[in-house]
Amino acid sequence: MMENAKFLWYLFQSVIDVHISACLPSGLQRRLCKKRLIRSIRNAYENVPFYRQKYDDAGVDINSIRTDDDIKRLPFVTKDEIRENFPERIVARGINREDCHYSATTGSTGRSLPFIFTKKTFAFYIATGVRMYTMIGYRPWHRMAYIKYTDLHYPRLGPFFQTSHIKSTIPVEEQIAQLKEARPGLIIGYASLVYEVARRATPDDLKHIRPKFIGINSELSTQDQRNFISETFGCPVYDEYSTEETWMVASQCRHHNYHIFTDNVWVEFIDSKGQDVKPGEMGEMVLTTTRSPAMPFIRYRIGDMGRYSDAACPCGLGFPLLESFEGRADDCFILPSGKFVSSLKLLNTFTMYIKKYLHLLEEFKVTQVSSELIVIRIVKGNRYDESQLEELLADLRLLLDNSVSIKVEFVNAIEKSNGIKRKAIESLVGKGQP
Asked: Nearest to residue 155, comparing CAs of 26, 342, 15?
């Protein structure tokens, strides 16, 4: 009972803190974030054996890390390193692991990545989730339903924070039935699952499922998908970007701009050489947690790509803007200049022409074999036209800065991989290939 009361107190404090933080001017917000960043790095060195050895081996004088520019001297951390050192060497000394919130994620690799938070950190993370939805108009008296594989056990306070958990693994018909029963004002879930619910819901179902807003998460979604969901349910749809291990990274406000939650994480955007990219340029996103002393993630290569913006948002929040996030780093093409081109942009280019010229292509696969060579395998459609294909290739060359050679191979079928998913866009650069 005492432990529950203690957690609720942490949560109460955190909810207040995160909403005050959101109102701070951008300059003050950034200064506070930098202080937390340096403090987190030094605490990690002092208390986490893995980081002490890693920085010592790299010849880093931890006392010289005083600014955000200085952290460029710190080596990156990968998921494999976290996995291999959990729990003995990656959890801070003095932490009672039995008293922590334990979780794990598999991501796209299928390999488990375990991690822990203290209860105070977990309360803060939940509070950032609450703020994510108050940013778009959610209030504690609105009912919430979330479609997820596990129950998050959100605390309920009388008539406030009423939540319903709907399993992501059950048939869509059961999900629709549970949504009709819950009658939520806010629906949260994976983009693909909410999209499927929207596609399968009947007009009668929609008489009972009438949310005020919808939040989608955990995977990339297209604007077309979000528009369809919005039109089906008759309410705005908002997106967010988070990870299981670091929680909230960025979320949309009512103006549909993504705000980076710098009171939770420090985000770097770097090119293939590890240098900062400019606003509007795509870079690999590298995260550092500033609220998780039990198991910090310092310069953590999450593997996602994104662009940041130095523009101001009309909503007035002091958080910087994430212009876009565009898929996995290992799916991106790396040009000879070091510039990244996202798989999503490549895929969208093909989609545009497939819609423009029906039956031009039946199937395709694009593979970056080396930094200077891309191979496109194509199964011709029954209305294949060479001039239309050349039009597509011209747009691809423009997207790729005319800096790589494109080789087209016509095949009868695209070979299937051993995995569950077949990637239409794949880069072999940096994976032991030429």
From this structure: 15
